[in-house]
Write a structure and sequence with these properties.
Number of domains: 2
Shape: elongated
Radius of gyration: 32 Å
Oligomer: single chain
Helix content: 55-70%
Strand order of the largest sheet: 1-2-3-4
Distance between the termini: 54 Å
Order of helices and strands: HHHHHHHHHHHEHHEEE
Largest sheet: 4 strands, antiparallel
Strand content: 5-15%
């Protein structure tokens, strides 16, 4: 669909086009609803979701197709009507049963399992939103009657909804960035983000499968989920790239520390760089001095720490390289604090 047509449909998001007298604007919305139902679940789903008002929807869609000059679609609707009238008597009792059930999905599943295959027509492809002929006629019609169509639509304030959605998606993307680069205190949020990304990735795969096997355009909500999934995967890849670089830095620091046994403080600083913190043994936090062991603590006079890792994932916690100097200022011991 064109951006202009999408902009028009957004105004009708929460408005029933059948709740009012027929008009070109309402007919165009009904045609879009008919097409959406066909690409999502076929004629069987359309009949179920719009029962018993499906004929009114087809009436409006037919008027819209006539107005835009889509004669093939008008002709194809005759077969659609005949097929729906043939199957409507079987659909009616299941629809009524679903109204009284706590789980109406069971009745729909029973209906759809038997009706999906038998309620299929070759001409359905003519109603795909991306059909070149239909898309061109629709765009020309909307552009030619823009003032009339938009003037008869609900208030323009409904056009703010896509902006709000975009802001929400941007906020969700930023939250994912923060989670990926957070410290270990964000472990639960990180794991939750992985579950969310997995769900979004499924939506992304669904979009590809719909495109590949049916050549139908996925619904808007699925396309949005796919976009967020792609962004989430990008964030995770970025975080893991940072993890790889950080792991290399950590390895380099440890290998250098192994070579510095017996060096003085100036040499250590020239090789490892300025320390993150300097502590005396008495003032060092317990989590730094405890891993040294009694022998190292009895000899140590000063402790330096170097940040050796930033936490990018549950399996790579934040780490610090801890180096110890004796009373003569000679480096004699190193360890890693997790």
């Amino acid at each position: 669909m064109s951006d202009l047509h999408d902009e028009f449909l957004v105004r009708w998001d929460d408005v029933d086009p059948l709740d009012g007298p027929p008009s070109p604007a309402r007919d165009l919305v009904l045609a879009a609803q008919f097409e959406d139902e066909l690409q999502n679940g076929g004629l069987a789903q359309f009949l179920w979701n719009f029962f018993p008002r499906w004929e009114k929807v087809l009436d409006g869609a037919e008027r819209a197709y006539r107005a835009m000059g889509a004669e093939k679609q008008v002709a194809a609707l005759a077969d659609v009507r005949a097929l729906l009238r043939e199957n409507a008597p079987a659909c009616a009792p299941l629809v009524e049963r679903a109204k009284g059930e706590k789980e109406p999905g069971r009745a729909f599943g029973e209906w759809y399992a038997g009706a999906e295959e038998r309620m299929s027509l070759p001409s359905e492809d003519l109603f795909l939103p991306d059909d070149p002929g239909l898309a061109a006629k629709r765009l020309a019609y909307v552009e030619a009657h823009r003032d009339e169509l938009f003037g008869a639509s609900p208030p323009a304030r409904r056009r703010l909804k896509p902006v709000s959605r975009k802001r929400l998606e941007c906020f969700a993307f930023l939250v994912l960035v923060l989670i990926v680069f957070a410290e270990r205190t964000m472990l639960l949020l990180y794991l939750a983000s992985l579950l969310a990304i997995a769900g979004l990735a499924i939506a992304f795969v669904a979009v590809l499968l719909v495109r590949l096997f049916t050549k139908r355009r996925p619904p808007l909500c699925t396309r949005r989920a796919a976009a967020v999934a792609a962004a989430a995967v990008f964030v995770v890849v970025l975080g893991q790239a940072g993890l790889l670089a950080d792991t290399r830095r950590y390895t380099a620091l440890v290998e250098t520390a192994k070579e510095l046994d017996g060096a003085d403080a100036a040499t250590v600083e020239s090789r490892l760089g300025p320390p993150e913190n300097r502590f005396s043994v008495e003032s060092a936090p317990r989590h730094l001095s405890f891993p040294l062991g009694d022998k190292a603590k009895s000899r140590a006079a000063e402790i330096w720490t170097y940040r050796a890792g930033v936490w990018y994932s549950p399996y790579q916690p934040s780490t610090r390289l801890v180096v110890c100097f004796d009373g003569s200022g000679v480096f004699f011991h190193w360890s890693v604090d997790d």
